[in-house]
Amino acid sequence: xxxxxxxxxxxxxxxxxxxxxxxxxxxxxxxxxxxxxxxxxxxxxxxxxxxxxxxxxxxxxxxxxxxxxxxxxxxxxxxxxxxxxxxxxxxxxxxxxxxxxxxxxxxxxxxxxxxxxxxxxxxxxxxxxxxxxxxxxxxxxxxxxxxxxxxxxxxxxxxxxxxxxxxxxxxxxxxxxxxxxxxxxxxxxxxxxxxxxxxxxxxxxxxxxxxxxxxxxxxxxxxxxxxxxxxxxxxxxxxxxxxxxxxxxxxxxxxx
Length: 256
Prior knowledge:
This protein is α/β, with parallel strands linked by helices. It has one domain (3-244). It has 12 helices and 6 strands. The chain has helices at residues 25-40, 55-69, 107-112, 116-132, 135-143, 145-153, 158-168, 176-190, 199-207, 214-217, 222-235, 247-253, and strands spanning 3-4, 48-49, 83-87, 92-93, 95-98, 102-106. The strands form 2 sheets. Strands 2-3-6-5 form a 4-stranded mixed β-sheet. A two-stranded parallel sheet has the order 1-4. Helix 2 packs across helix 4 (116-132), helix 2 packs antiparallel against helix 12 (247-253) and helix 5 packs across helix 6. The longest helix is centred in the middle third of the chain and has 17 residues, at 116-132. The protein is globular and about 55 Å long.
């Protein structure tokens, strides 16, 4: 049985639609790098696929993420790391990210979906959280500003603190404003790609509210989010036709 966690997707603190951001982009990158290294050091909890072991899967993933990252409207496209990794665990339907644009996607999510546009919607939503710098806000709320600064500055005990924070990444919840902002950003990004601009709404519907992860079941309600995303796509004059692209099929078929 799958452990469905999704929408716990995370990344950086917003100064525009979220709260006051006391971290610089460089701080986010440094914190994200430390959390990335902590996750890499724990292959039991995070059995990450290496690129050398799954070259076709990563090539397909790069094609999908590359299309989204090439879109107009990504404010920090040239400043964040934008590293995407696959965690080999079919029991978890989830994707999450650390500050700075470091993103992990579970094979459980990849195997659950059968549509590239829906998957692109997840990627665009994650990028929206990263671009909006939402996770620093969420992490500060959970751990406190002092602890995060200790990790960034490498103060005594920073390694243990980073490990504790890394363990909480997949379950971190965003505020209503952050979720709405990431939804809206996903529409803006995908409008400038071959993918349907309302793809994140397709993803919501693909998983369904009853089986949905925290990302879907918390505020705002999934039904409202679907409606809002689709209306925004119409308002912005974006295409909602499926792309017909097949890189996601290659990604799924190339998994070990």
